[in-house]
Amino acid sequence: MPQKALSTLLTMICLSGCTLIPGQHMSQFTNESSVEMPVSENTDAILNKLNIQNIDAALIIKLEKNINNRSLGADNAANNYFEYRIGSTPVKGLPITEKNDQSQSDGYYLVGSRDILLITVWDHPELTTPLGQQALNNATGAVNNTSSGGATGGTVVGENGAFYFPYAGSIKAAGRTVEDIRTELTEKLSKYILNVQLDVRVNYYRSQRVYVVGEVNQPGIQTLKDIPLTVLEAINNAGGINNQTADLRNITLTRNGKTYGINLLALYEGGDISQNISLKQGDVLNVADNQFNKIFIFGETTIGGTGSGRTRTVLMNKGRMTLVEGLSEAGGFDQTTADAARIFVFRGGLNKPSIFHLDAKSPDALLLADHFPLEPHDIIFIDRTEGIRWNQIIAQIQPTITLMNSLNGALAPQPFTNIPVN
Prior knowledge:
Elements: H1 2-15, H2 17-20, E1 32-41, E2 44-54, H3 57-65, H4 81-86, E3 104-105, E4 108-109, E5 116-121, H5 125-128, H6 133-142, E6 155-156, E7 162-165, E8 169-172, H7 178-189, E9 198-204, E10 209-214, E11 220-223, H8 231-237, E12 246-255, E13 258-262, H9 264-270, E14 284-289, E15 294-299, E16 312-315, H10 323-329, E17 338-347, E18 354-358, H11 366-369, E19 379-384, H12 386-408
Parallel strand pairs: 2-18, 10-14, 15-19
Antiparallel strand pairs: 1-2, 3-4, 5-6, 5-9, 7-8, 10-11, 12-13, 12-14, 15-16, 17-18, 17-19
């Protein structure tokens, strides 16, 4: 009976050893994933197990040949991660400026409804100040009264885009420069005034606004004026970005129902001035957060000596990080429990799902890891050594053995005795 009980217990251990080991681990001899993943094949999604690719010199050479694996590659996953985040595909490239659909025309401001114009006709104060000196004072002060939407000094362009001026009648102003308006006024007033000299300027800009939101220090509405407002200027006017939470790679511009991607990091570090486009009426500029540029580290890590087996979430600085940097952020792998020959990177995000394996039993393999770029939402997993697994099995079954021994001593080692012969 004791021999049968012991034999049965050992058989159970052998058959279900994997289930007895707490936590997670990869099969020792596997070369593919144990689960099926949706992968693209001829534009169709099919379920398939993923091959495990070794991180070796050949793979590093292949990765470095693709410019999009570099930090500022146009199709680098970190540069386009907001596509995955918002669940829709933005328009590729930057918006094309159309002359007739801009608040700026060849660098000149186009007047709009609700703008306030100050029109001065020299030697004719009755035309310059038709409402008296107080109205002129109000108009002069309106340019500094940027917080008030009710300023009335000067000539207000109506909702129909026109304004009325004595002797000239109704003047169409919306969509025109002040030079165009001045020319028309001069022509019409010349019928009544000899040698007309007049000036037209926008005294208070109210018609065209853009919205700056997201990870900036002072989000809000900004008014377009005679100097073109670019992306950089709008962000600076908003107090600059929040360096702790902003993702400069993934700024979105919404214009006329379409969303475009702007990469300011390419401007700052790569000199791509095409990213610094001029804004127009109704634009919404959103500085995205960087909370989706994370990697996740599981397994036998030290986390700076606070204990092994801790999980760590790490933000990628400017959307870029190598495998060595990720391991370092986790405090490195635990030298007493980790199997350095079994470090895995699981990738299932934007690009084709993949599994990579690094054999770092020899420390010089970390040179390869330093050339392996991570992508947002990559998962680093450090497996345990086989010896630790066996010790965990013994630790789990020890209470069972102790219990059975306390009941009848069935599994306690017994000395050999002479068996009587009949």
